Sequence to fold (66 residues):
Amino acid sequence: MTSSYVAIHNTYKEHGEDGPLRMFVYVNGKIVADHIAQDLNDAVRIKENYESSLNISLDFQYTNPS
Fold:
């Protein structure tokens, strides 16, 4: 993995309901921002906005719960 990436984590509400996705944006190994995304499409949109603003390519790290 490169040192510039977006990490996505699931969150859960009471009684085990799915919550929004928690996003962390890392550039050169340091966290530069965190966001709440409603779904994966929203997460991709946020990632693309960072890529455009920073003029870099970010890897996408998402662990699908089993």
The longest strand covers residues 18-27. The mean pLDDT is 90.
